[in-house]
Amino acid sequence: MEKRLFLAIALALLVLLSWSAFVSKTHRLDNKEVTLQSPTLATVHSLRSELSQATLEEPASSSLFKFSQEKYDIVFIEPQAAIKEVIFKPYQNYTFPLKYGFLLEDVNLIFQKEKITAESVSFVYRDKDKEIVKRFIFSNSNYNIELEVAMQNLSNSPLNINLPLVLGVLNLGGDQTQARLKDVTFAGKDKITHPNLRKDVTSEEIKFLGLRDRYFCAIIEPGSDSYAGFMKKINAQEYEVGLNRKEFVLAPNQQTQFKFNIYLGPQELRQITNIKPEWTAVMHYGTFDFIAHLLLRLLDFLYGLVHNWGVAIVILSLLIYLLLYPLTLKQMRSMKKMQALQPAIEELRKTYKDNPQKLNTEIMKLYREYKVNPFSGCLPLLLQMPIFFALYQVLIRSVALKGAKFLWIKDLSSPDRLFTLPASIPFLGNEINLLPILMTIGMFIQQKFSMGATSASSAEQQKLMLILFPLMFGFIFYHMPSGLVLYWFINSALMLLYQLRISRQK
Q: Does the predicted model carry a pTM greater than 0.85?
């Protein structure tokens, strides 16, 4: 079989296989760095088992109330002084569920609203032994929240206090495509880990803890270093994520207060950076996280210049093309040399048709003589793969691109969907996405120009490659975010323009 055909098929299969593995495992990182044996784990397990079923069930409407600001509506569960969900108004009322976020995990604590102002909500619990006040303080300028938990021993005896604080509940049920985009971040003093989402884990000395879905996240940072992070399975689909403080003693009539810094908002680089730059670690993009963050910062910079995400992606495509241009030039020169050697290779095949081993030896000798590397043409494509995967993660998670328009594209985070058919097409569905079709046509023309004159024996193989390669990529890209397809389309168009220029110079 022709080497170029073999390479094309191998690379296409590599893309398909690696894509499948990448998408399914991006957020299933090994948790070997997370400490699994913590002295607080047994306490957390015990408290979870003691929680009443009522806590886990949907709260009655009478126990809910809504706190409204310009940026969001927060639905509180009054008896638990916890946040059920956040509705973000600037983002088409997107609902970010926490189920019972910032719950003090003790079934005996039944809170009541104490005070509500334009900037804060307070809850109080009081019995004969102790008083606990929870106060949420909201910012008008950003998505930062301060949580104060004040405790007082009202008795004449010391009280042993151990109250885990739940950040939220991670739900991995329902749509598995969306479930794969959920993630947990444990940020310790020396390392940041993203544990396996289907295991119970703890991590000592937490600096901050993060919980996110596709677009939004909750981050909490305790005011001291004496907290451990935990993730605990509560049923087949749900996992509790939170902080646990080592047990301490509160003396008679003694008061103490704990403070937590919270971010509850979109995964936007500028929003989080303005509050605390290190919190951007919650925006984790898997294997190619470093490349993804570089692309994200570059895209954000370009958007700040042009104020259109589609234009920013086009400029990014141009910059990456220029960066890889030396390798592209090397690829084109290698392809031209390969085309020039085809007649000589065909003669060798006729001469050594009964001796395959000798044929391969002579072909490699010919390559060395003319200083041709048959695999050098694959290098630009291989270098594009990490950029491609990283950019995919950035674009599919970017809430800024949600609803962003460009030309006929209504949403750069989704397929471009030109129109919908009344009937479904096998493998493609009933949506006609124009951009991947244009990309496939462009790749077909590009392949056509890249193929020189061939012998009759290899003509059929060349024709197969001409059709197979673009169709394979068109199929892969068809249901991807239009922002990503736009990037690849621009890249392919630039390659085609370069080949057209080369062909006119002949």
A: no
